[in-house]
């Protein structure tokens, strides 16, 4: 099940809210949440839900074991066993096809290429289990004594399929005990609706344009088509993923959980270093805290550590060469920035930093989009007018014009305008009762409109792929 | 490497308060207090509103009646899947249920329409292209890059090219397989409707352009023509083979009909559509036998200010078909009847055709057409046969006057997947066999003024060897009438070839097996298996002379007007005006 779905929004969610708030004690609320989460997961993965349960049992006992032997060598064993098993499962399901066909290609063999179905959300919950055992080992969190507490952490349907990657230590306390404030419930609703709008109204439309502009036989139809296609894809992937994170965070808030922010207007960054602090934050910090620093961070063989981290980051996004290239591309840019570029950018007006970042990111998404290398090279070629390609063509222009207002809105909303507008609105609303009523009415109308348009779009378009679904 | 950012505060929905300068602190904190208490009320109100909407919509979704058919898309909506252990375990239940649930939302048609309106507000009104559009011509319309055009021998990508429909399991292709009309009363439109959807998938070889296209001063859509000379050559050669097989005494006419894109496409889009005139001339110049060319193109081109094509559909209008008929009659050396005097004019209002169903574009939806057709005044009788077994279905009506406006083009013959025979009271001594796709449906009725008998064979649906069949019937004239798309589309040309070479015509192996029991129980002439092309006349001459008597029913009289209804085996519906007899 995905969040941007009529059945989820109007059947699953209301039923869940009724049961959840009918339960008075946190313990019962937890049971309700587990049952709904397992149902949610089993909806899409009726078989591999077993894998999720296995993983939870396995790491529950690992956690107990590590806790029992804290400070001893045995504790390390627990961490190693857990990581090996978790990553092996991920490896088999996600990468075995790529590895075997890679070996076949290299050695000229024809081993049968395994074709495993990738269980939904496995990349996310595998990483969450790792944070648990490592946090327990580092004694940042207590081992969960109650199995269901741990199962709840791993299976919570808000972040199960597409993150954010919530660390055990950050929600450990809330699993045991949490209170739900009305103001937070209200904020949660806002996040949920905005997330839904980002996903359904903006990401889906941008995605449609991107697909149309970037599906070509030999080359895009014009230079404009290549640029516009990649830019539309950049917008799609941001709105898609951040909208989904917003919905997860919002629903968490409605139920008393505080998940970390996952996106902080990444496209306003002025360097790649900054971009990765704002883009998919929970993944970036995961790699920092659980890979980069344990490897030695910037104290020893920093270059190697950076290479490993970015190789893994790329690989995590998908079992295909282009994702690895994409990860390493950012690794290289980061090293360049570290050695001299950041200092240069600091001296220049900020505008140049933004321009550089945007271009770097757009090319990054081009690499990310094309799993086929020849397609990628012809798209990149087209962006520079290779083979005397025409600058524009009617078809592309008419497509872009047909969604012009939405594209402009999407670009504007990449910037932190929402915070600004709500601050202005708040100051205005404070002035008098009438003004307060006015601002409140506008808010309700805007939210209602977003919800209404999202729902008619969901009914109207059957086009509803979710990009990060299979990661 | 990546230090956590200091100000990672979420912007959304936060109601944090900035510390204010000390001097204004008191006044503001007072205002803040008031604001806070007001905001608390606002929070409660909006929570209640949200939950109310959520639960109310949920209840509506559960309890309101769900539609099972989409009239505008002309397709059956997703069905509720059955829950079994297997369907649950392989995940198909969940995915189908989700698809069903969102595909059959109550008031779907209204919502879809609303969404299309919202879509059109996303940007500036511009020409809108649907489907997979490629540059296929230069600015003068000359075909370029022959190999790379979208036209292929396999079905063009039209069905999977439409963005709005790709993701759904209930898309156009699914709709083709099982479609029933919303009103069971008009049962004969069942197959026609099915064909509507299929036709467009067959022909749409370079997408559709809507908005910015006008016909007769009103909004219209046109299908862009990809063109494929190689296919055109094949088409011409096949028709020549028919001429050779039928011999020098039988006239073979070929009419390739231009479509609306040829005359109504704005010049600036020319490179997305290649010249149909060139494609037609190419075919007319590629005959290898004495096929009589019919210059329908010039006749039609001379009347482009008249309502000769449907604006919201991929077909021509009945008036357009008249000009093709006029061209044919002129090629025969006769004078056609006058379209404005010699026919009974009928109208169906509110027609919105296949191009809307395909694109869901509100511009087309809001430009319905007045569908006009012309009924010949002469006397004639129409008989229908199953296309596969040629089992008689009885006498029917040539015009289905009671079709609902959504299926107006089905007024002619009613269906593609049927074999039609028309017997007139002319005494010309001429019997014609027409090979057509759906464009021909509008054309056939005009022929009742020029021939004694008219046999209509759809190039996709006919269960006999056509040459053999025509010789049995003593055909004197053969007409091929196909639109420029069809004459350039491999899958349709395949049909013409199969009719020529295969004993069972267009039937595939599965279908042949299915019709065998019928031939076994009835004494109807079964196709001569493995009929060698050149020997057909011999086979017939030795087994079945005179060939005219080999009518589908054993009791058929040897007379030329022999009609299967006379056998008495099937219900005779002589007063049939609404066409119900055909389905029986």
What's the overall average pLDDT of chain B, rounded?
74
- Count of individual beta strands of chain A: 0
Largest sheet of chain A: none
Distance between the termini of chain A: 15 Å
Mean pLDDT of chain A: 88
Largest sheet of chain B: 8 strands, mixed
Estimate the global geometry of chain B from the Cα principal axes: elongated
Range of helix content of chain A: over 70%
Q: What ranges of chain B have pLDDT less than 50 throughout 5 or more consecutive residues? A: 1-17, 147-204, 529-584
Determine the number of helices of chain B (DSSP H or I, runs of at least 4 residues).
21
Give the neighbour order of strands across the main sheet of chain B.
Answer: 7-6-15-13-14-12-10-11
Return Rg of chain B in Å. 30 Å
Number of strands of chain B: 15
Beta content of chain A comes to under 5%
Helix and strand composition category of chain B: alpha/beta
Percent strand of chain B: 5-15%
Name the quaternary structure: heterodimer
Overview of the molecule:
- The complex is a heterodimer of chains A (471) and B (584).
- By secondary structure, chain A is mainly α.
- Helix content of chain A is 74%, strand content 0%.
- Chain A is globular and about 70 Å long.
- In chain B, the strands form 4 sheets. Chain B has an 8-stranded mixed beta sheet with strand order 7-6-15-13-14-12-10-11, sandwiched between helices.
- Helices cover 36% and strands 14% of the residues of chain B.
- Residues 1-17, 147-204 and 529-584 of chain B have low confidence and may be disordered.
- Chain B is built from 21 helices and 15 strands.
- Chain B is of the alpha/beta class.
- In chain B, strand 1 (69-70) and strand 2 form a beta hairpin.
- The chains are: A mainly alpha (471), B alpha/beta (584).
